[in-house]
Write the structure tokens for this entry.
Amino acid sequence: MPTKTGKKILVTGGTGYIGSHTVVELQKKGYQVVIIDNLSNSHKNVIDAIEKITGIRPEFKKFDLCDFNKTKSFFNKNKDISAIIHFAALKAVGESIEKPLEYYNNNLVSLINILKCASVFGIKNFVFSSSACVYGQPDKLPVLENSPIKKASSPYGHTKQISEEMISFFSSKNKTKSISLRYFNPIGAHESALIGELPIGKPNNLVPFITQTAIGKRDFLNVYGNYNTPDKTGIRDYIHVVDLAKAHIVAIERLFKNKNKKKHEVFNIGTGTGHSVLTIIKTFEKVSGKKLNYKIVPSRPGDIDKVWANTDHANKELGWKAEKNLADMLSSAWKWERAIKESEKK
Ligand code: UD1
């Protein structure tokens, strides 16, 4: 059993994909975790899965952070919270273009409510779930944290840009120090195959689409082509979700130890290497032993050609580095897809 740190951490969106992996890593480090999630895109049984992995059941409260009275009443009853990791948000790019106000309302009102409470209840440490999408298509690669922020191509991306700025202004005038982590492309699942990415309906992201095609849930994968890259498919910086989860622990500990150099800091969280879609497919076929059915089709509107991170700042300042390679990421994603199939048989 890990030594207890005596610190209680609020994880909003803790039953989601990245949130659940982060809860596991926090518990392994001896932190007490309380989760708030409205379950709009996740399942309550994730709590059971977390307990199976760590032997500790995280406390769970189901409500919507857009409801200020409920949020305030939660903080009133939990005055011992040392830090907040804020994941809870809507995240589908295409859907955000269809329903812009829903995205602005949900992602920004919940953030405002939680920051108000951080101020009122004196919570000094705040980690925010941001995204590499804030950069758009960078002019120079690998992309650095101080690269220009381009105009957002979707309301989803815009909410991440606004959120980062809001947190930065907020921190400058309050006791709450903050870190925004700009995630590149998280994939893979926990080695236990008890938690992983669970897309509701047809997946938008590449890897769940690959594993669902390989298991027979989808007939074929559309590989978007015509990008300005050597093999014409998009290049991204894929990172194992457990490596990403661990970045949250070092970020929180940096704040606890007052090692931050500014009231609001930003870090790229990726591996520093880009891979094309065809490389992903080839590696997946190798680790799974499955031939993938795919078709090359035109580009997806709004997609950028290529992006990968310069991770020097995170490596040096956080003392964090992604450890898992592409084969680890894809074999864990495949193990997870097979575990889902097994559980559906029951
Ligand atoms: C997308 C979002 C990004 C968000 C991230 C969350 C867009 C434009 N960007 O990133 O803002 O933070 O998800 O995970 O939607 N691909 C295929 N076939 C598919 C699906 C994807 O070829 O069926 C390709 C894409 O062209 C891209 C790569 O796979 O090159 C990765 O796509 P995806 O997993 O959707 O992630 P992003 O588009 O990078």
